[in-house]
Design a protein that fits this description.
By secondary structure, the protein is of the alpha/beta class. A 6-stranded mixed beta sheet has the order 3-2-4-1-5-6. The model has no long low-confidence stretch (mean pLDDT 94). It starts with a strand and ends in a 6-residue tail after the last helix. It is built from 8 helices and 6 strands, in the order βααβαβαααβαββα.
Length: 248
């Protein structure tokens, strides 16, 4: 049996402040660090043993992975970072408060920007300091591939070739693979694995720092998927993500 372990990063500083984050490189809160460490403890207690790890270029995911591996006493594991695992770009919304955006634009428009499959938020200008074109970590990447904004379909388009060409191929020599990334990049993977419809994915939310396990047979046919941990607590976290726009 093959196992894919997906983990969204722990609470970030901008999660706590209820701001759109996207490609902005914000850190974990102390609570987010604790969430990540406890996720690692849980994985260790439940007997998981990943042998290859992947994460994004953004520190909230990188540091979550570090905390998980520390808790598992597996700091030695190989880790590959890719910008293709970055969060969905929220374009010009990055840094905006979600509750204030709700008041300004209304629930329908906010929901489209946050969760829809094919509606992009307003784009960043090329000269905007928030643009990845002005970030040295992306200097070696074709500028045409760097987003000014993204809908979920765009995130999936830049993510899934990496998933299929790199992460999926890792199962040829690994039975358990750990991917630590972001709410929307992981939603893209989940949508594809579970063959979810474009409308179905709108209402699907991933909680912070909860291991999401996918089990496959040896031919990589999906057998089952489940969140690891206390299910009532996990549901509260999912509801918290869903209701972010209503937070002050």
């Amino acid at each position: 049996m093959k196992k894919l372990i997906l983990v969204r990063h722990g609470e970030s500083e901008w999660n706590k402040m209820n701001l759109f984050t996207g490609w902005t490189d914000v850190d974990l809160t102390p609570f987010g660090q604790c969430e990540a460490y406890m996720a690692g403890r849980l994985l260790k207690e439940e007997g998981y043993h990943p042998t290859m790890c992947y994460t994004s270029y953004l520190k909230r995911a990188v540091k979550t992975l570090n905390q998980i591996l520390d808790a598992m006493d597996m700091d030695y594991l190989p880790v590959e970072k890719s910008w293709r695992l970055n969060e969905k770009s929220y374009g010009a919304l990055q840094g905006a408060n979600k509750a204030e955006t709700l008041k300004k634009y209304g629930e329908e428009k906010l929901m489209q920007w946050r969760r829809s499959y094919d509606v992009q938020p307003p784009a960043l200008e090329v000269s905007d300091k928030r643009s990845p074109l002005n970030d040295p970590r992306y200097a070696g990447i074709d500028p045409k591939e760097l987003p000014a904004t993204e809908a979920l379909c765009d995130t999936i388009a830049r993510l899934m070739p990496y998933y299929e060409g790199v992460i999926l191929k890792a199962f040829e020599s690994n039975d358990e693979v750990l991917v630590v990334a972001h709410g929307n990049s992981l939603r893209g993977i989940v949508k594809t694995l579970k063959k979810m419809g474009d409308n179905e994915i709108v209402g699907f939310n991933i909680p912070t720092a909860v291991p999401y396990i996918f089990e496959f047979d040896d031919q990589m046919n999906l057998q089952k998927d489940f969140y690891l941990g206390n299910q009532e607590e996990i549901q509260r976290k999912i509801d918290g993500v869903k209701n972010q726009a209503n937070r002050k």
